[in-house]
Predict the structure of Ferrous iron transport protein A.
Amino acid sequence: MTLADLPLNIPARILSARLDADLCQRLAALGLHVQRDVQVIRRGVMGGPLQLRVGSTEFMLRRNDARQIVVDILPQAHS
């Protein structure tokens, strides 16, 4: 599943990201990197950006970029 498909407020772990090096570096500075937990807390209308929470940091990410990030829902999110 990609980050763009992740349901709202469901914790997931990032498995991989197929992004260009510059964007990967900027996202890593915000705490978004492989093996980090993330949540989608809001979706922009009409294909707008996603608002993400990583730790205590919240930021927006374009959906096209979110489609390049593979995540796995955390087991405790299923209960």
Notes: Strands lie at 12-17, 37-43, 50-54, 57-61, 69-73. The chain has a mean pLDDT of 94.
